[in-house]
Amino acid sequence: MAFTFILDLWNKWNIRGFVVLSLLLQVTLILFAPLRKKTMRRPIIFLLWLAYLMADSVATFAVGLISHNQGNSSAHVAEVNGTIQAFWVSFLLLHLGGRDTITAFSLEDHSLWQRHLLSLIFQVGAAIYVFVWIFSSDKSLVIPTILVFFAAFIKNVERLWAFYLSNLSRLREWEFLDDIFSYDLCGKLISVEDECFNEEEAKLDESTMVKHAYCFFQIFKIFVTNFIFTRQQRNMSCNYFYKVSAMDALRIISVELQFIYEVLHTKVLAIPSKWSYIFRFIAFIDIVMACILFNRLKKHRLP
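That's the DUF4220 domain-containing protein sequence above. Prediction below.
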């Protein structure tokens, strides 16, 4: 009796439960991902790592579960409307690629971009299978579902591109290409500074401090790729930090670390061009239009 009750409960709530769990994990990562760069407490880091792994696994499992249910003619298939399930598939794919605050948890994640690509191909295939199976008989939600699917595809391609650009081999190529980066600019920054190394208060305004931090980020990023300073880079940084105040030095280093975090753990490298903004705008419009169409739909028509 207890086994039958548990089986019925699973058949009724399995898809709903995984969709809700996937949404909760996405909200958790969006809200608490900034803690990844602000704390060293092991429990918090572990919970973020667990949420990061579970977010992908739960969404992938739910997509597979929905596609399995569509091909299962058994009476024990989950009692959820088919068109709603197709709509959920699109949103689950959006969950897989939609996070901007924490695209990768560690540097090793970027080296697995081929695995993510293969996984995306299977997930898109499973989604198309669900769409063909369901929309051949019921087209009530076909437009909102396809709109969300296109937005999800754009987000997942954007995430894969960020993985590819941030892997170590690509970063080393990037470092070689940028090796001649604007040493003249850094030289000018050094030459205009008055010596204030014995002062503790901040002297630089925010905009100047960010510009200086970005300039030195172009130099310090070599440490991510296991390279070392050239003599010119070392002398430039030593001269500059000898002249600025202690507070300004700490502020600049803090912003540099922010830049490094964005490069390694977010999609910042994938969105520098105008085409990236265009595709992001298209994805945003697709989601807005899908939500409007879904809200205007007369839900009682769904069987």
